[in-house]
Protein: Dephospho-CoA kinase domain-containing protein
Organism: Neopipo cinnamomea
Amino acid sequence: STMFLVGLSGGIASGKSTVVAVLRELGCAVIDADLIAREVVQPHSKAHQQILRYFGTEILLENGEINREALGDIIFSQPEKRRLLNSITHPEILKEMLKQILKYFVLGYHYVILDIPLLFETRGLTKFMRYTVLVYCDPPAQRARLMRRNGLDAAAADARISSQIPLEEKRQWATHVIDNSGDRESTRRQVLRLHARLEDSLDFLWARLVAGAAVAGLGGLVFLLLRHLIS
């Protein structure tokens, strides 16, 4: 059997976690990039040691873990430091993602959903996805949710939202959009429809294989990751 990858993304407070919860409930394999990003910098990891070497001990919390807020402040204002941090963490994140993708492949899953918050910002990854799903929310609803969730005033909420690529723009790049501007029930119905489509798209897959079109997506990703593993 073969397997394809589905990229899932959203914007701040657009409701991605609601969508992920429904997908998990339906039995989908979902890999959470944010969770992996936190795990690869735990104390005693390779990335943790490198981050300390370059950023110093002042970014540590009492318990030896990295203070994500302090590190976030540094890289927010200094692009070259952000690039440095990415060069340390990205290979480790990719390695762990590959491990999980291969695990699901061995378990016989036909597709894996990669929950990557900055999927559309790091355009390089989208070429490995057969489909990309954006959890969309109209700007007024997004702003209201963020203010409510994080206890922010309008100006602070707007600053956070405007630091990301607008959802309107990401909408044009996604193959599927789930509009989460309405109620939970409407969102849930859209996720069920998406799930049915992902399950159905397996039928087209056989047609494509018979036509001799090898699925390059997973092969390409494996190749890219193996290069990281070896280097």
